[in-house]
Amino acid sequence: MKEKVSFGPDKRAWKPSPLVGQIVLVTTLNADGQSNIAPKSWISMMAFEPSLLALGCNRSHWTAQNILRSREFVVNIPGEELAEIVWSTPMRPHPRPVPSVGLTPIPAQKVKPPLVEECKAHLECVLNHQLTFGDEIMFLGEVVAGSVDKAALESRDPYTYLKMVVFLEDRTFGVIEKGQQIREKTTPPSIKTRPG
Ligand SMILES: Cc1cc2nc3c(=O)[nH]c(=O)nc-3n(C[C@H](O)[C@H](O)[C@H](O)COP(=O)(O)O)c2cc1C
């Protein structure tokens, strides 16, 4: 039997982290209509119908306050090349509109917060539900529109183009370098509709 080393429930002490969170840049609108940008990694899809994602956010953050007020946000998917900007963004003072971190706001299809042009894919969300746990708030956002760089669809492996990044631990991230297909049709019918 392999030897196991136990660790406690505090995620901050997990090294290596056994769970990854995709790094995204969330855009929202401040009360005066100016944009706000912040990196987040506590995010995952939760349901097909409606198309729901969950986003975990500190309640005091501008992102959380903006979502509670305007009920809209955009999840922008950066590639590896934006990692330095992702990590430096929280160090910049508020107000923190998209151009203040060197990125470009462009109009979304269905919501008012902007997309970030330099990101490679975008999910436009409307707040469906929220759950509060102490200082943290969990938003359930309904995805009402999505978009991706045309170049991703034209490349041999869209995942190599996207180079999506995941949070591992403080100042440490991982990169999805390529998509890999299962060669044999081995997936049982019961899980065919529920990708990981
Ligand atoms: C890679 C990365 C991932 C982060 N993920 C989250 C997260 O999932 N939830 C959260 O509340 N803060 C997260 N943070 C911290 C916020 O981005 C940071 O506190 C930021 O200044 C909040 O900005 P806001 O007040 O404009 O929302 C993350 C920071 C980094 C660098």
Question: In words, what does this structure look like?
Answer:
- The chain is mainly beta and 196 residues long.
- The protein has a single domain, classed as Electron Transport, Fmn-binding Protein, Chain A (Pnp Oxidase, Chain A), CATH 2.30.110.10.
- The chain has four helices and twelve strands.
- The chain has helices spanning 62-70, 83-88, 150-154, 158-162, and strands spanning 21-22, 24-29, 35-40, 43-47, 52-58, 72-77, 105-106, 115-116, 121-133, 136-148, 165-169, 172-175.
- Strand 2 and strand 3 (35-40) form a beta hairpin.
- The mean pLDDT is 96.
- Bound molecules: flavin mononucleotide.
- Flavin mononucleotide is lined by residues 23, 36, 38-42, 56-58, 61-63, 86-87, 90, 96, 167.
Topology:
Layout: E1 21-22, E2 24-29, E3 35-40, E4 43-47, E5 52-58, H1 62-70, E6 72-77, H2 83-88, E7 105-106, E8 115-116, E9 121-133, E10 136-148, H3 150-154, H4 158-162, E11 165-169, E12 172-175
Antiparallel strand pairs: 1-11, 2-3, 2-6, 4-5, 5-10, 6-9, 7-8, 9-10, 11-12
Bound molecules: flavin mononucleotide
- Taking the alpha carbons of the first and last residues, their distance comes to 28 Å
* Helix share, percent: 10-25%
- Overall average residue pLDDT: 96
CATH class: Mainly Beta
CATH level-4 homologous superfamily: Electron Transport, Fmn-binding Protein, Chain A
Specify the number of helices: 4
Low-confidence stretches: none
Keywords for this entry:
binds flavin mononucleotide, three-stranded antiparallel beta sheet, mainly beta, 4 helices, seven-stranded antiparallel beta sheet, Pnp Oxidase, Chain A
